[in-house]
C-alpha cells in the first residue's frame, strides 16, 4: 500500500488553557494537529482521554461538530479533563500544566483494532505517566507505524534520557530552537548539533525558529524557509502545531521536501494571524486546499 493510504494516528493530550479572567481555550499540541489534519481531509484517528466532566463532553462535542473520529477518545470517570493554569507575572505568561489529568491514563486495553497503514504522531507531554506511555508502546507494537515525533518539551515533564528513548527510531523529528538548545546544548553550531540527531532511520529533522523561519535537514541536504515580510501577528500560539500538521500532509501526499517546508511555513504564518491555535472557519483552510492541489 502506498503512503497515500496512510492515516494519521495522533496520540497525546487534549486540554483547556484556563486564564485568570475565566476564559478557556481548547488545545494541546496533538489535538491541534489532529484538528488541522481533519480540515485538510486526512481523517486523523485521535487517541486521548478526557474526564466524564463537562469539559470532556465539550471536547467530544467539538470533535463531532468538526467531523473528527472520536472512537479513540476515552472517557475517564476518575480523572478530570486536561488543563493548564495560565498566569501572568510582569506581563509575561507562565503556565502550570496540571497533573494528573485524564490524558495521563490512556488505557492500552481500550485501544481499538488498529489494522491498516498509519503514520504515528506524538510528543513528550502525554508520556509523563506510565499508563499513557504504555498505551503508546502498545500502539507501536500493534502497528509498526513510522513515527513523527514533535519533541514539544514542557517543563518539568521531561528528562533527557526519556527524550532520547522517544527519538530512537523516529522517522521524522520536529523541534524548535529552544528545544535544540536543551537536547543538544553543546558541541558545534546549530547544523552540527542537528546532524547529531540524524540517524540512518531519520528521513528529516525540522527546526522552527519563530519569526526567523524554519529549516529541514536530511541525508540529502539542508533547506531553509522564511516568513513573508510584514506578517501581521495576532499571537504565536499553535504556530508549531500548524507547521507540524502540514509536514504530515506533505509526507502522506508525497510532496517534495522543499515544497512541504514552504507550505508548512505558509500555513504557520497564517495561524499566527488569527487568535488561538486553530480555526473553526472552514474557509480559513479551503484557501490552502485550493492552492495546494496536486
What is this entry, summarized?
By secondary structure, the protein is of the alpha/beta class.
Give structural notes.
The protein has helices spanning 29-39, 54-66, 130-143, 160-167, 177-183, 190-197, 239-253, 257-271, 282-291, and strands spanning 7-11, 15-18, 24-27, 45-51, 73-76, 82-89, 92-97, 118-122, 147-150, 172-176, 204-208, 214-218, 221-225. The chain is built from 9 helices and 13 strands. It has a 9-stranded mixed sheet, with helices on both faces. A 4-stranded mixed sheet has the order 3-2-6-7. It is an alpha/beta fold and 294 residues long.
List the helices and strands and how they pair.
Blueprint lengths: L6 E5 L3 E4 L5 E4 L1 H11 L5 E7 L2 H13 L6 E4 L5 E8 L2 E6 L20 E5 L7 H14 L3 E4 L9 H8 L4 E5 H7 L6 H8 L6 E5 L5 E5 L2 E5 L13 H15 L3 H15 L10 H10 L3
Parallel strand pairs: 1-4, 1-8, 2-6, 4-5, 8-9, 9-10, 10-11
Antiparallel strand pairs: 2-3, 6-7, 11-12, 12-13
Helix pairs in contact: 1-7, 7-8
> How much β-strand is present in the residues?
15-25%
Give the helix level as a range of percent: 25-40%
Total strands: the figure is: 13
Overall geometry comes to globular
Helix and strand element order: EEEHEHEEEEHEHEHHEEEHHH
Distance between the termini: 20 Å
Structural class: alpha/beta
Q: How are strands sequenced across the largest beta sheet?
A: 5-4-1-8-9-10-11-12-13
Rounded mean pLDDT is 93
- Number of helical stretches of at least 4 residues: 9
Major pleated sheet? 9 strands, mixed
Rg for CA atoms: 18 Å
Which consecutive residue ranges, at least 5 long each, have pLDDT under 50? Answer: none
Amino acid at each position: 500500500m502506498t503512503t497515500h493510504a496512510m492515516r494519521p494516528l495522533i496520540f497525546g493530550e487534549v486540554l483547556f488553557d484556563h486564564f485568570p479572567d475565566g476564559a478557556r481555550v481548547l488545545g494541546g499540541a496533538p489535538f491541534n494537529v489532529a484538528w488541522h489534519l481533519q480540515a485538510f481531509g486526512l481523517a486523523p484517528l485521535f487517541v486521548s482521554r478526557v474526564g466524564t466532566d463537562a469539559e470532556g463532553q465539550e471536547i467530544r462535542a467539538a470533535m463531532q461538530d468538526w467531523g473528527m473520529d472520536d472512537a479513540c477518545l476515552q472517557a475517564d470517570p476518575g480523572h478530570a479533563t486536561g488543563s493548564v493554569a495560565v498566569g501572568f507575572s510582569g506581563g509575561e505568561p507562565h503556565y502550570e500544566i496540571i497533573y494528573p489529568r485524564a490524558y495521563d491514563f490512556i488505557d492500552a486495553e481500550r485501544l481499538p483494532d488498529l489494522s491498516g497503514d498509519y503514520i504515528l504522531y506524538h510528543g513528550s507531554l502525554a508520556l509523563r505517566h506510565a499508563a499513557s506511555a504504555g498505551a503508546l508502546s502498545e500502539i507501536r507494537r500493534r502497528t509498526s507505524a513510522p513515527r513523527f515525533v514533535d519533541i514539544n518539551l514542557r517543563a518539568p515533564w521531561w528528562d533527557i534520557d526519556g527524550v532520547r528513548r522517544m527519538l530512537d527510531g523516529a522517522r521524522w523529528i520536529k523541534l524548535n530552537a529552544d528545544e535544540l538548545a536543551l537536547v543538544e546544548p553543546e558541541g558545534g553550531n546549530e547544523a552540527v548539533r542537528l546532524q547529531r540527531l540524524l540517524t540512518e532511520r531519520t528521513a528529516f529533522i525540522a527546526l522552527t525558529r519563530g519569526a526567523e523561519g524554519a529549516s529541514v535537514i536530511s541525508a540529502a541536504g539542508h533547506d531553509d524557509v522564511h516568513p513573508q515580510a510584514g506578517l501581521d501577528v495576532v499571537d504565536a500560539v499553535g504556530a508549531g502545531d500548524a507547521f507540524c500538521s502540514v509536514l504530515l500532509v506533505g509526507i502522506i501526499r508525497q510532496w517534495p521536501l522543499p515544497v512541504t517546508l514552504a507550505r508548512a511555513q505558509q500555513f504557520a504564518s497564517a495561524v499566527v494571524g488569527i487568535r488561538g491555535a486553530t480555526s473553526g472557519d472552514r474557509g480559513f483552510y479551503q484557501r490552502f486546499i485550493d492552492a495546494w492541489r496536486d
